[in-house]
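In this supplementary section we document a worked example of the pipeline. Step one takes a protein sequence of length 168 as its only input; no multiple sequence alignment statistics are reported here. Step two produces a three-dimensional model, which step three serialises into structure tokens for compact storage. The input and output of this example are shown verbatim.
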Amino acid sequence: MRSYHDRQWGKPCFEEQVLFEMLILEGAQAGLSWSTILNKRENYRVAFDDWDIVKIAGYGEDKISELLQNSGIIRNKLKIAGAVTNAQAVIKHGPLCDLIWAYVDGKPIINHWQTQEEMPASTLLSDKISKDMKKLGFKFIGSTIIYSYLQAIGAVNDHIETCAFKYN
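The serialised model returned by step three reads:
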């Protein structure tokens, strides 16, 4: 968790594969702890063909069945099917970089929290993005998932004021 926080969380990301990976991992995390997902992150990368969006968009029932047998990932049929649907939505409406970063005019929103407890689980912005993405056909992108996603990709900088990584 420390390495993820120090090296990735809250740092602006514009790389399409990483943006897609984080979207899928945030959706997979629903109902689970983030540490569970981080511990399975490498397994996900391998299982989902290095996050190749075109390949994932083409997954059929055979591949989904294979993934459901993979104990290295969360074996939830709806979440796995959602990853395929989301890849298809990215191809159709894509790229995620343009879709997501347009909501913040290409630069992070920097919040000024004193404690983690002050951070919201969702905001009006995450409500809007979630609603808009649902209209485009995305799955597992509720407002709380989207807010966590925005934090993860650095579109929202929620490092607390005393964090050494606030502006790094």
